[in-house]
Design a protein that fits this description.
Blueprint: E1 3-9, E2 12-15, H1 21-30, E3 38-42, H2 75-78, E4 90-95, H3 102-124, E5 131-136, H4 138-149, E6 155-161, H5 167-174, E7 183-188, H6 193-202, E8 222-226, H7 230-238, H8 254-257, H9 261-270, H10 277-283
Parallel strand pairs: 1-4, 3-4, 3-5, 5-6, 6-7, 7-8
Antiparallel strand pairs: 1-2
Helix pairs in contact: 3-4, 4-5
C-alpha cells in the first residue's frame, strides 16, 4: 500500500488506528525499490485526526476523499500515489491536532513538528535515502520544526504552500544539520496576503519585526515561487506546466486547488534532477510582487467566482486551514 497514515501523539508519532508504527514503517520501506520517494504530507489549521468529521485522513489525505467539501482534493493521488505504477514510492500522511484557536494550533504545530522529527529518525533506521515533505499553512510550521530537529541529511526537498511561519524560524531550520542539505520550494501568492498579515498581527514572532514567509526568504537552498504572478506562470508554461491565472484576490487554498499546481509539485519531488534549483532559479522571476499587489481600492476583498467560492464556514476544516 502506497499510503501510511500517522498522527502526532502525546509522546511522539503513532499509527492512525491500532498497530506498531515502527513495524509498519519497516515493512513499508522494505517494499520500496531503489530511488522510490518517501513523501510526508502535512495539513494545516482546523483539521484533527481525533474524529472522522475533522480528520485529514478522510479529506485531503484520502486517495478517494468524499466530495462533501470543496477543498477535498486528494493530495496523495495528485502527487502520484495510488495508481498502481512502478516507482510510486511511499506517501506518509501526517495528522496532528490543529483544532481550537489559532494560538493553540500554533503551539500544537511545534509539538507536531517534534513528533515528525522522531518519525523521520525512525524512518532513517530502516532507509538510507532522504524524506521529502509537502505542507500547507500551519503544516509548513510543522515541517520546518521537523527540519530543525531531524537527523543530518535526512530531508530532501520540501514544498511549502502558503506557509504560516516567520522568516527567522525558517532561517533557524535551514541552519540545522538537516537544513544545510535540504532544498525548500516556498510557494507564495499575493492571494494569501491577508492570512500572512493575520499571522504577523496575532502571533508572536521569534524576533521583533519579523515577517511571514509569504514575503520570501533569501537562502542558497531556498526558492520562493509566486504562483499568482503572470511572469511566473509564463515561465512555468515554458517548462511544461500550464497554470491558470488566479480568479480571486484573496484565497488561502489556491496553492493546491488551482489546476496543475499539485502536478507541478509532484514533478518537483520526483524529477529534481530535471527541475534543479539552479534551473528553476534561472527560469523564474527573481523578484516577487509586493504585498497587497492583488488588492485594489475599488474592489472588495472577495470576488465571487468558481476558483475559491465564498461559502459558509464548514463544520470540518475551515479558515486558515
Amino acid at each position: 500500500m502506497p499510503l501510511l497514515r500517522v498522527n502526532a501523539g502525546a509522546d511522539g508519532p503513532v499509527l492512525h488506528g491500532a498497530g506498531n508504527l515502527e513495524a509498519e514503517v519497516a515493512q513499508a520501506v522494505a517494499r520500496l525499490a531503489p530511488g522510490d520517494p518517501i513523501i510526508l504530507i502535512v495539513h494545516g489549521f482546523k483539521f484533527s485526526p481525533a474524529s472522522a468529521e475533522t480528520s485529514p485522513h478522510d479529506h485531503i489525505f484520502s486517495l478517494t476523499p468524499a466530495r462533501t467539501c470543496w477543498k477535498a482534493l486528494s493530495w496523495p493521488r495528485h502527487l502520484g500515489f495510488g495508481r498502481d505504477r512502478d516507482g510510486e514510492g511511499l506517501c506518509i500522511a501526517f495528522g496532528w491536532e490543529a483544532r481550537g484557536t489559532i494560538w493553540r494550533a500554533w503551539s500544537e504545530a511545534r509539538q507536531a513538528g517534534l513528533a515528525m522529527a522522531d518519525l523521520i529518525t525512525m524512518i532513517r533506521r530502516h532507509h538510507d535515502g532522504p524524506v521529502d515533505m509537502v505542507g500547507h499553512s500551519l503544516g509548513a510550521r510543522v515541517c520546518l520544526t521537523a527540519l530543525r530537529y531531524a537527523p543530518p541529511a535526512s530531508i530532501g526537498r520540501m514544498v511549502l504552500m502558503a506557509a504560516a511561519e516567520f522568516r527567522a524560524a525558517a532561517a533557524a531550520a535551514m541552519a540545522s544539520p538537516a537544513g544545510r542539505t535540504a532544498e525548500v520550494l516556498n510557494i507564495t501568492t499575493r492571494e494569501n496576503d491577508v492570512f500572512d498579515a493575520l499571522i504577523e498581527w496575532f502571533l508572536r514572532a521569534p524576533t521583533r519585526g519579523d515577517r511571514a514567509l509569504g514575503l520570501g526568504l533569501p537562502h542558497a537552498n531556498w526558492l520562493d515561487i509566486q504562483i499568482d504572478a503572470d511572469r511566473t506562470r509564463a515561465a512555468l508554461d515554458r517548462l511544461g506546466f500550464r497554470i491558470p491565472a488566479p480568479k480571486r484576490r484573496v484565497c488561502h487554498w489556491s496553492s493546491y486547488l488551482r489546476p496543475g499546481l499539485m502536478l507541478f509539485y509532484a514533478d518537483l519531488l520526483r524529477n529534481r534532477e530535471t527541475l534543479s534549483l539552479n534551473r528553476l532559479r534561472h527560469a523564474l522571476p527573481r523578484e516577487a510582487e509586493p504585498r497587497w499587489a492583488r488588492l485594489r481600492p475599488h474592489h472588495g476583498l472577495f470576488d465571487h467566482d468558481d476558483d475559491c467560492p465564498v461559502i459558509p464556514e464548514p463544520r470540518g476544516p475551515g479558515l486558515l486551514q
